[in-house]
Amino acid sequence: MSTRIVVMTAAEAGRCAELEELLFAGDGPWSAEAFRNELAQPHNRYFVARDEHGATVGYAGIALLGTASDPESEVHTIGVDPALQGRGTGSLLLDALLREADAHGGPVFLEVRTDNEPAIALYRREGFETAGIRRNYYQPSGADAYTMRRMPEHGQPEGQQP
């Protein structure tokens, strides 16, 4: 399967909401309106994965936060059609997010369900480490989440020397 990662548009919000229902039905999936609201924020960057037929098969978003002297980023979401998981689409989406984060500077944070081993493995491969745990983070299921952090490419927090 050939997958392209492109910038998300508001027209794709409905399809992303459909995928949210498939992926996160027990944890308050985002609506199309929620995706449109996220796209409207100037500090957010969202992408979709399209298959060889142009169909949206995944999505991802990140917020570029902080100040110029103290930047950080937060991964908001990554989702891939369940029928296509395990084929590298999530990695491609995460790569797009991390390119944005690296250009912005600073550490990158995210939350991931503690039982989502494939996602945790992906994040670890990309340099994320567990920074803590958030009990009952996902609602309404009450599932716990790890907070994970990836330091800037040089491995030191902004403004610190090795």
TrEMBL record:
Keywords: Acyltransferase, Ribonucleoprotein, Ribosomal protein, Transferase
Domain N-acetyltransferase residue range list: 3-153
Domain of life (superkingdom): Bacteria
GO cellular component: ribosome
MF GO annotations: protein-N-terminal-alanine acetyltransferase activity
Pfam family, one: Acetyltransf_1
Enzyme Commission (EC) number: 2.3.1.266
InterPro entries associated with the record: AcTrfase_RimI/Ard1, Acyl_CoA_acyltransferase, Bact_Acetyltransf, GNAT_dom
PANTHER family hit by this protein: AMINOALKYLPHOSPHONATE N-ACETYLTRANSFERASE-RELATED-RELATED
Descriptive protein name: Ribosomal protein S18-alanine N-acetyltransferase
Gene that this polypeptide is encoded by: rimI
